[in-house]
Amino acid sequence: MAFLRANTPGLRVAHAHEIVAAFFGYKSNIALKSDAAYPIDDIAKAQTMVPDVEGIKTRLAKLIGLPAAIPSAFEIADMLTRFLVDNGWFGGTVWLYETVENYVTEVYLVEKDYEIMNQLSGVMAETNAYFDEAYFEEVEVTRTNDGMIIEAAGQYYGSNDPDRVFAGDTIDMTATIKLDRVAGHTCFGEEDFMIGGELNDDWYEDA
Question: What pLDDT is attached to residue 5?
């Protein structure tokens, strides 16, 4: 709290507490303090942190009397994340983005492309196509008392070998990411990643 106030001139103590609570995914500082199941004191045990940028934004909109020059929700999340990392309280992976949905499609799944290709190699083998482009568009985030489940639907596109019989060139796929809570609502253990897919057979129906 002192760090946040030191870097945000004019910020009240009570407001600093509420903003930090929002960073950890709580609706109030009271909720943070009363959480005995996943106390933020256990941050060091976590391996993945997903700062609640949207929660901070919502909280800032409700607080009255904030400094005129207060940083944006994303800037506050970045500031607090750097503080926790620099002071050795957290040493895992940080998912810092405006929204979880955008992080998953623009960063996480892009970095998982090789693993996705490996896991779908059996489906790819059913075709005569070369696959090189995966696209995820629909992302659904479900928050529970014990963690977060993220499901992303998309397609893997390929190019058919012109010298072989066409047998499909698109795979419909769904990625599932499961995060179990460790501290607060934003600090989790190592993510559990799964990908499933099947050959899109629309081409067969149109043939």
Answer: 75
